[in-house]
Each structure stands twice: as structure tokens, then as C-alpha cells.
Amino acid sequence: MEKEKLESLLIDFIDGKLSEEERKNVEQELVRNAEAFTLYEQLKEVIQAMNNAARLEPSAHLKVAFDKMLQEEMGNQKTGKTVFFRPAFYRVAAAVLLLVLGGGIGFWISKQQQQAQQMAELQREMNHTKQLLIGLLDNQNSASQRVAGATVAYKSVVKADDEIVNALVKAMNDDPNTNVRMAALEALRKFQHQPYVRKMLVASLSTQKDPMVQIALIRLMVEMKEKGVTEELQRITTEEGVLPAVKDEAHIGLMRLS
Amino acid sequence: MTDEMIMEAVKNGDLQQASMLFERYNKRIFNFLARLAMDRALAEDLTQNVFLRIIKYRGSYKEGARFQSWIYQVARNVFSDHYQAHKNKYSDFVDVEKLRDNMPEPEDEPWEEKEKLLHRSMAMLPDEQRELLVLTRFQHMKYEEVAQIMNTTVANIKVKVHRAVAKLREHYFELEKN
């Protein structure tokens, strides 16, 4: 008998897996064949050795490590739950949707950031302009610099805040130089629709002593159709020491406003 | 409660139940890997990895599948991945002389000469044959169960196991002579 076949039969014989007839055949072979018997003895020994081999025990560390890992996984599970779509088509659809959403959100965020950046840049420029014009208006040594300050307000400022208005009003009322006062008035004229500017212009009419500014102011009041100044115009027409040209302008103003 | 019912619960998010599967299987998986790798410390690490994968990839457990087959398949993959990753680190065969360093004998029950001989001859077998003997002889699994784990036929397993036993016998008695 071929050795491999014999070995296979012997193993089944040892395992008790042969039919009655096969078992008898093997027993007969073992009786008449000494080599087969040795082979049987040896196979039996290794098979029994394997069957009876001691069971290995893992160290206590394995259980500790498992418990730690399980706790971590349970912690992860609380923080984020996996969404699992079935069938695969839904997963693909979800992936595409996420991709589109992600792209959209990314684009939107980038646009928002860009806008915010532009706003910040604009704000920074405005602050810079404001500081520049206030600094120029405040230059006591140079009338031309102060005129330049008022010009900056006229040319570069879109909407004047209280700080700018106050600086311009102060220049219009108190600056020793007529050109500066006129330039300040011209700048304020640009912002005449702002209620606070309007209020300051009306107030200035009663205190203004510079005839040039007075005439320009009266013309502005007419332009603004500011009827609240008629009493003040009346006073100017009768007040002594007021230049005739101013009185004439007040008369014209009164006629136009009434 | 069957292993399969517990695994279903784990799959549905009740991770705490995994400790019951650990209690039932950790020693068997450890023994399988220790006999296969011939290294106890490594076997502990690999066993830990097996349970980590069971939990992490719980979603891939198919409803109705036999849990025992699945966990052994995971264990085989863990073992194979480890050796793929360390291909250059290990030679193709286990160094028999160093074996005793990695498989220290239990202090309370020192191995008999025969058992030492058995381990040295096991080390001389190729991985596949050693694996088949560990499953069928050391772990007393039926050929049907092993065929399921290895995704092959019972007849194929039987032929391979018989060859492995025959080869082991050769090594065993050769070593005994020396």
C-alpha cells in the first residue's frame, strides 16, 4: 500500500473514523506488516501528544488591555455614531451629496471671508482718512493744511460721523482764516442731509460773524429750504453792524423761504 | 444567549456585550495565535487586535453567520497582516533554538520532554500545516468547522490535515533520535 494512503488510513483508524470493514482491514495490515505497525505507533504518539497538550493561559494583562480598549471604543461611540447606508447606492449618493455640500459650504465660507476682509480693509481706509483730515484741520500753524483737511472731508468722506462733523463745525465757526471757514462750510454742505449736520448749520447762523460765511450759510439754508431760520434772518436784516451785502442776502433768503 | 445573538447586539451598538464574547473566546484565540506564532507575548498583542477589529468592524458581521467562524477568520487575518508587515523582520521559518525564549513554559507546570519535542517539531512545519493542526488537534475543531473558516471543502481539509500529521511525525521522531 502506498505510504500516504496508509498514513491516512492509520490516522482515521486512530481517530475512530473508519467503517467496520475498513477498521478490520487496517487491523489485519498491522498484524502482518511490522513497518505499518511502527508507523501506527508513532502517529498515535504525536496525535495523542497534540490532543493532550497543555492549554496556554494568557496573562492578566490581556483582560486589562481589552477592558481599556472597550471603554475607549464606547467613549468614541458616544461622541460620534457611524451612519451606515444600505445598499451601496445610498452610500454613493450620500458621498456625492456630502461632496457637493462640502464644496458649497467651502465656497460660501471663502466668499464670506473675502467680504469680511474687504469690509475690514475699507474700515481701515476710512479710519485712516478720518485721522488724516482731523489731523489736518487741527494744524494750527498752517491755514492751507486746514483747508486741505476740509477738502479731504469733501472729496473722500461718504458719510461723516459725529467726530468729523464736530471738527468741521469747529473750523467753520472758530477758524481765524476765512478760506478755512468757507472750505469747512463747503464740506458740511455735502452732508446737509444728515440731521446732526443740519442742526449744527442752523445753529451756526446765529453765531457766525464772518460775512462771507454768513452769505454762504444763508444761501445754503435757502437751498435746504430750512424755514426754521426765518426769525434768525429777520434779526440779521435789522441788526446793526452787519454788512449790507449780508442783509441783502438775508432779505432774499426771507423772500424765498416765505 | 448564543454567540450570534450577542454579536448582533454589539453590531447594533451595545458594545458592552463584547466583554461576554471576550470571556468566551479570548483563551481559544490566544491559544490559536500562540501556537501559530510560537510567541506568547506577540499572541497577546494579536489577540487584543482581534477583539479590537471585532468591535471596530462590527458592521461587517453578517447576520446569521456563525460567530466562531468569523472570529477565527479575523484572527487569521490579524496573524497574516502581522507577518506581511514584518516580512523582512522574520525569516521564512521559525528558529527552533530560539523557540524556548518565546514560548516559556508555565512555571507551575513545567512541560514534559514529550511536549517540548512536540513544540519543536511543530515549529518545523510550514504555517499552513501548523495552523491546521492547531485548529483540528489542539483546539479539537471538526473538519467541517475548519473548512468553513478556511472557506474550502471538508475533503480538502482532511487531506491537508493528514499530510500535516504525517509530516509532524517525521520531524518529531527525527528530533527524538538526536
UniProtKB/TrEMBL annotation, chain A:
Q: Keywords on this record?
A: Coiled coil, Membrane, Transmembrane, Transmembrane helix
| Coiled-coil residues | 112-139
User: Which residue windows are transmembrane per the record?
Assistant: 88-109
Under the heading Pfam families, the entry gives: HEAT_2
Keyword Transmembrane set for record: yes
Q: Does the keyword Coiled coil apply?
A: yes
Q: What is this protein called?
A: HEAT repeat-containing protein
TrEMBL record, chain B:
Keyword list, A-Z: DNA-binding, Sigma factor, Transcription, Transcription regulation
Q: Which residues form the RNA polymerase sigma factor 70 region 4 type domain?
A: 117-168
- The protein here is known as RNA polymerase sigma factor
GO MF, any single term: DNA binding
Which organism was this protein described from? Chryseolinea serpens
Record domain RNA polymerase sigma-70 region: where = 21-87
PANTHER family in UniProt: RNA POLYMERASE ECF-TYPE SIGMA FACTO, RNA POLYMERASE SIGMA FACTOR HI_1459-RELATED
Q: Name one Pfam family in it.
A: Sigma70_r4_2
Example GO BP:
DNA-templated transcription initiation
